[in-house]
Amino acid sequence: MDIKTVSRWLADEARVPHPRHRWAAAEALGVDESVLWPEAIRNTVKIGPDREIVTVYPYRSACPKSVWRALITAADSTITLAGYTNYFLWLEHPNLAKVLTRKAEQGCKIRFLIGDPDSNVTRHREDIEAVPLTVSTRIRITLAELEQLKRVPGVEARFGDEHISMSVFQFDDEMLVTPHLAKLVGHDSPMLHLKRYQNDGLYDRFAYHANELWSAGRHVWADQVSG
Hints:
The protein is α+β, with helices and mostly antiparallel strands and 227 residues long. 41% of the residues lie in helices and 18% in strands.
């Protein structure tokens, strides 16, 4: 690459060469690419709050099961499953109860925040969705599955009403968030995969949301000691 070409690129601030040409020019001049074209780097590298966004899925169902498995497996301290029904988890992960039992035995705190099948919020949502497999039925299936975990130390379940429009699934410093759209059921709504990189970023905001709802939740098992 000749020096005249490089000089022409540098003289015109509005002109940004193709990436391979930028790399070649930076190498020829012995400097980092960000020194020559900082705006180009800012446009391609996440440096703000959005750097905590790992992936965006247009539908929750588009997220591979392997992602869920990897997040559950890697979590050491906390797993929070705050979906209003959490029904799909048992369908997509048949051995989930056994896996979570092992995680709890290893010291991981497992928290389930689900909707109350008998609440007015649940009944209203059923009217909105108008699907054969009702919200309350899906919750009751989860409650039946949770019976396997009822006596496992480190596992706690609570009822909550305020997360009806958004599900938060937390795995240590990573998180899957689903904002529920209008009449759509969970698997048809979009999902964000977040990873914590900073204080008061996206991850922390959603973690605050989940923790607040958890604190206000009502124990599913009356004889369970608060965790």
